[in-house]
Design goal:
The chain is α/β, with parallel strands linked by helices and 472 residues long. It has two domains: 106 residues, Immunoglobulin-like, CATH 2.60.40; 322 residues, TIM Barrel, CATH 3.20.20. Helix content is 31%, strand content 23%. The chain is built from 15 helices and 20 strands. The strands form four sheets. Strands 8, 9, 10, 11, 12, 15, 16, 17, 18 and 19 form a ten-stranded mixed sheet that branches. A five-stranded antiparallel sheet has the order 4-3-6-7-20, with no helix packed on it. A three-stranded antiparallel sheet has the order 1-2-5, with no helix packed on it. The longest helix has 24 residues. 41% of the residues are buried.
Amino acid sequence: MDNNVFKRKILNARNWILLVITFLGKNEVSFANTCLKPQLELLVTPPDADLGNNIRIYWSFNRTYDGLWIGLYSDEPKQSSDEFLVANKIQVKELTGFETTGFFEVSDVKNMTYDQQTYLGYTAVAWTVVDGKDRAIVITKLQTYPQWMNHYWEFIKNVPMTDLFIPGTHDTCSYKGDPPQESDAFVKKHWAILKSVPLLDNWSLTQNREIKGQLVSGIRYLDIRVKREDDMYWSCHNSIPMHPLNQIIEQVVEFIVNTEKEIVVFDIHMLVSGIDSNEEKDAFVSYLKQSFTFNNKQLYVPPSKVNQLWKATPELILAEGRVIISFIDPDYQKSNNMDILWPMVFQYWGNKQYVNDLRDYIYATIPTRKASENMLDTLTSVMAELTANLKRIAKDRKNDLSAQSEQHSIEIHSWFMDPAVALQTNVLAVDFFTIYGVARLAFIWNERKYYKSTCDSQQTIADDYYQKVIIP
């Protein structure tokens, strides 16, 4: 081999190694690797942020394209790059970035279907100029993913639950929803209190879609907190009642009976009050068994029927049920589970008020998750959200949970595009999930895990389930 050629090969290899070292050292995602397919995604900002319910376009390209620009459309253009265009063209100057468009989400959860994806009114297309003409690079739509596990079944069916990338929500039931229809004065009283105190409203809400909207959008891990008050079970955020628990469960049941292979983790992660003694827990578990039974068929997965529990695969779990109910009290779960309660999910909760502190916590704990033997057999969830405390609320009342999600979502998203974090992530739970793209992250990483690669397989380049890549 020519000596100069050999030196160039060594230099290129050294530069690639330096790129990887730099990438890991800075905790940033580098898209210099051309084995990654382009990513284009439509996100929705939280409802109470300054630009609430706004359509945001996120992009990440692995290489440069001539004349690169992105358009927002009311429908997929077929004839020309101007057809159905609704916003000014975005001239792309950086390979990774985002733009908040000024157009608002118009979707109604009541119109979201279970059997197929629901189009939610917007399409984004990235274009390049070839021979003086616009050519599409990648096309994506704002849409739901009600049966993504069924779609990716061959990719995930034999993977232990502890090795899947599962999209989830933090404080799942903390959303506004519709005013209560119950005649119960207690229900209406709590709703009125919550809505009459803006500070409670702004700092207690963590999601912008009800349970049905979360599930059909791809969420499969539900973080449930419960209290019992006036002979009624409530979902709650800390001590604040949010919605009657029966309304939450009804939406899960409706989703399960209308889909085929979707598995939902219903994680009862906090018992706030009123469910303290074993007798009270017995009554609560009996309520759960009854609530998750439909037409005399149990929808929950009995733990006694599944060997290895969290190490079991979706295919083995599906044979026994569709809803995994995990429980926060390990002693009670082991001794009195009534064959319905699974072991608790371990939550990596940093309890951080600032994004830099949250990043440091995640990079200090998640990349080494599997090095801890007691985590190998446990479903684990990264709680990737900033939390509030009284000091922070008093200091910065306007910068509430929705505002923080809007400001920091792209940075947090980038951490989970980093293989060092993503390959060790089991469940990813966030606030206001529509701004984070957690379902898309699950698709990307479950594909890559299946092919045992940090690259995008050529077999999935043309898969148009969540986007259509035309020019890799």
